[in-house]
Amino acid sequence: YDAFVSFAWDDREAVRTVSESLEGEHGFSCCLHDRDFHPAQPFLDQMGRSMDASRRVLCFLSPDFVKSKYCVWEFKHSFEEDDLRGTRRLVAILLEPVNDTDFDKTNEVVRKYISKFTYLD
């Protein structure tokens, strides 16, 4: 895949619009868990393999994203892999503003990232 797309379930319609544009208008291939994962295979295994095999990881940040343990895991995994590989595959896209009150110790990595690095708004 050109991009693994990480998003909260409640943001799926907005994210689907972007992924359809990337695929239809720009020729990119995107991996979306609700469309591309196989039901008979372990979800977490597919998530890790798909992320590792993708050229970029697009994380669509929102209050729902930072509340999702799966989304935070995807973000953290991608961020840590970038650090290990010396690459910058993670692309953070602010879909909706995230307030300081949305953060806690389980999603602190997201807050630190958006305070240090450039993200798309």
TrEMBL record:
This is TIR domain-containing protein. GO terms for molecular function: signaling receptor activity. One of its GO terms (biological process) is signal transduction. Residues 1-121 form the TIR domain. GO terms for cellular component: plasma membrane. Keywords: Membrane, Signal, Transmembrane, Transmembrane helix. Its main location: membrane. It is found in: Membrane. Pfam families: TIR_2. The keyword Ribonucleoprotein does not apply. It comes from the Eukaryota.
